[in-house]
Specification:
hydrolase, alpha+beta, globular, Beta-lactam_cat, 9 helices, about 40% helix, Beta-lactamase, about 270 residues, Beta-lactam_class-A, two-stranded antiparallel sheet
């Protein structure tokens, strides 16, 4: 099945870019269109954190304290009933492995939103924008809901956004960096969600990935590595007209599209 047919069958508009790392080969579907990042933004956050640690600017064992005022609701410490503390490096792990929004907020506080933006500029990702931490994104949602207006969080021109091509460029930078980049990919390997990119590949293919989800939006970016050593950066973004909590068909489409793109590159 073609990439366009995979997305059409799932009832979504799909955006994709895949590249073979260390090679000029690439496959794309609307690869330069603006897309909403959602929690995919945590990859850039974790990379800037790892770089600051490597530069001696942050101590990864420093602790942060998540209180009731910090909890946004959701997975991990964001949904805890009680206060908890953990190290900065564990905050990065929580942000990438289970998409803990409170851990990401606390990490953004230490790393600095401006520094994440500077990293993106340094990497030449001029079409990637970060409006702030997860709490800032939630604030726009609550404001827009109160005013009964369209959510900025779902508009790539008014929220944290990028393009599929720029996201595979970010992944390529991680893959080429044996220090901080490798550390981030290690955290991404620990992601507990295996129903999107990873579901499209056989178990012998290693997957380091990060999801992003908002109403009507399901995304995932990641690096897939085959037993022969060939590695591929893949970014898949989808937009649906209607949203339900469970859309396994869209999740499967993300994995199927990723595999189809990578198989085209391998052939």
């Amino acid at each position: 099945m073609s990439l366009s047919a995979i997305f059409e069958t799932a009832g979504v508009r799909g955006f994709l870019h895949a590249r073979r790392l260390g090679s000029p080969g690439e496959v794309g579907v609307d690869a330069d269109a603006p897309v909403v990042l959602a929690s995919v933004v945590k990859v850039a956050l974790a990379y800037e954190f790892a770089r600051q640690v490597a530069a001696g600017q942050l101590d990864p064992t420093d602790r942060v304290h998540a209180t009731a005022a910090d909890r946004l609701g959701g997975t991990g410490s964001a949904g805890f009933a009680d206060d908890v503390s953990y190290s900065l490096r564990d905050a990065a792990l929580l942000a990438l492995s289970i998409s803990d929004n409170t851990a990401a907020d606390l990490l953004f506080d230490r790393v600095g939103v401006a520094n994440v933006r500077s990293l993106l500029a340094e990497l030449g990702l001029s079409r990637t924008s970060v409006i702030g931490a997860p709490r800032d994104l939630l604030a726009t949602i609550l404001e827009d809901q109160a005013a009964r207006r369209p959510l900025r969080a779902l508009d790539p021109l008014r929220t944290s956004a990028s393009t599929p091509r720029e996201m595979t460029s970010l992944l390529a930078a991680l893959w080429a960096d044996p220090g901080p980049g490798a550390r981030v990919l290690g955290w991404m390997t620990a992601q507990v969600s295996w129903h999107r990119l990873a579901a499209g590949f056989p178990p012998e293919v290693a997957v380091a990935a990060k999801t992003g989800t908002l109403p009507g939006i399901r995304n995932e970016i990641g690096v897939v590595t085959y037993p022969d050593g060939a590695a591929y950066a893949v970014a898949v973004f989808t937009v649906a007209e209607a949203e339900t909590l469970r859309r396994p068909d869209i999740d499967r489409a993300i994995g199927d599209a990723a595999r189809t793109a990578v198989e085209a590159l391998r052939s």
